[in-house]
Amino acid sequence: MATIVDEVAAQLAHRIRLERDARNWSLADLAGRSGVAKATISRIERSEMSPTAALLVRLAAAFDLTLAGLLIRAEGTSGRLTRAADQPMWRDPETGYERTQVHMRPDHPLEIVQVVMPAGQKAELPASSYALIRQVVWVQSGALVVTEGGERHELHAGDSLGFGPPADVTFANETATPCTYLVALSRS
User: Fold this and answer.
1) Does the pLDDT of residue 73 top 60, yes or no?
2) Are 135 and 125 in contact (CB under 8 A)?
3) Backbone angles phi, psi at 115, to 5 degrees
4) CB 23 within 8 A of CB 16
């Protein structure tokens, strides 16, 4: 699994550089648009550091992409069948949050992601990461607290939550055990 994680991190670093180059942006341009320090972006592009989910959201938004869109481009998933062993997984170095791309095709409007949120951890994502998508979260095991635009939702195994209009969202595991959940996304 570590090999897959390392491979995705390298693909992500390369994709960020490609997205920046495709727009003919300097490091300073991307820094200004994303609010991420130029030195940090440079280190990410050189694979000297693995970006957190929060940094990736800011970079994706600067490219007019969702976090999922940026990761999909980096992972290069294609074909109708993706074997479990080939599903790309990315780990947030700050929280240990693990995101596995279960299903995604550029020509299909539905995307499925599995997330494992470690005990006592959270991920905060800005409204901009939901601007181009609609999503549903379905808890598979454990418990998850989703705070969407100030409204708190406590979900347990089997519970699902459909998201409303784009708002800042926090996914938090306030328990002592990991939480696994699926996210079904449809692109607008």
Assistant:
1) yes
2) no
3) -125, 135
4) no
